[in-house]
Design a protein that fits this description.
Blueprint (H helix, E strand, L loop, with lengths): L1 H13 L6 E6 L2 E6 L15 H9 L7 H14 L13 E2 L3 E2 L1 E10 L2 E9 L6 H14 L20 H14 L47 H16 L1
Antiparallel strand pairs: 1-2, 3-4, 5-6
Length: about 240
């Protein structure tokens, strides 16, 4: 019945969908493969989450195992293919940061237990407690447990601070990109290691953003521009 259920729904479910899912029978079992596209954890919408797609597909399959069925229902109810945490009630947003991002980064099966990990990057004016409270509330509805494996406090430096305005003035003067504005990103950088720092560069306006992608690169012909910017920044901040 599992085989008939999967193969009976596969074509229908993929019709008009972008899900990259295939199912094949092997040694009396059905193997379901979900393909995705990697993306930076701070910008999950630039990628394609294979785990979320797989669980969306599994909602069309008759599942007997109660624990797995619970997990599939949780995804279907609260995760779907979203990246903002809207289904979980945590699509928080503020002016400095923009909207929260949520990525399902990993799923593991061990001793018949299934564990999956969220990567949540929340806006700076909200608290991690507010995020966790909403997630736990919904997990409890599906008899699932939530554990915080690691956490980092957000870093925020106002754009009108001496540090940011100085760096922006230098960038604009050297590149001619006078309309540039500082941006808030969900990525974690070494700026967290100091008490008053921000990430500065090295992506110029005409460069492709391929951070954490395959074949990540920077052009050598930009070295002179970067060097001018950084030398001037060190000098102006030090004086």
């Amino acid at each position: 019945s599992m085989r008939d259920s999967i193969f009976g729904n596969l074509d229908i479910y993929n019709e008009g969908k972008e899900f990259k899912i295939s199912a094949t029978e092997k040694d009396g079992k059905v193997e379901v493969v979900s393909l995705g596209k990697a993306s930076h954890g701070a910008r999950p919408s630039n990628g394609y989450n294979a785990i979320s797609a797989l669980f969306s597909f599994l909602t069309k399959v008759e599942i007997e195992d109660s624990k797995l069925k619970n997990l599939v229902n949780f995804f279907n109810e609260y995760i779907k293919m979203e990246y903002s945490g809207e289904g979980l009630g945590i699509n928080f947003e503020d002016e400095p940061s923009g909207v929260l991002t949520l990525t399902i980064g990993k799923i593991e099966c061990e001793n018949k237990n299934v564990m999956f990990g969220f990567d949540i990057r929340y806006p700076v004016t909200f608290t991690k407690e507010a995020v966790i409270e909403e997630v736990e509330k919904r997990a409890k509805n599906m008899d699932l447990n939530v554990t915080v494996r690691s956490e980092k406090n957000p870093l925020y430096v106002p754009k009108d601070s001496f540090l940011v305005t100085t760096l922006m003035d230098i960038y604009k003067d050297i590149t001619g990109d006078v309309d540039a504005e500082p941006v808030s990103i969900g990525g974690g950088t070494y700026a967290r290691a100091v008490t008053n720092g921000v990430a500065f560069g090295a992506l110029l306006k005409d460069q492709e953003d391929n951070m954490h992608q395959k074949n990540e690169y920077l052009e050598l012909n930009k070295l002179d521009t970067w060097l001018k910017i950084y030398v001037q920044a060190i000098y102006d901040l030090a004086k």
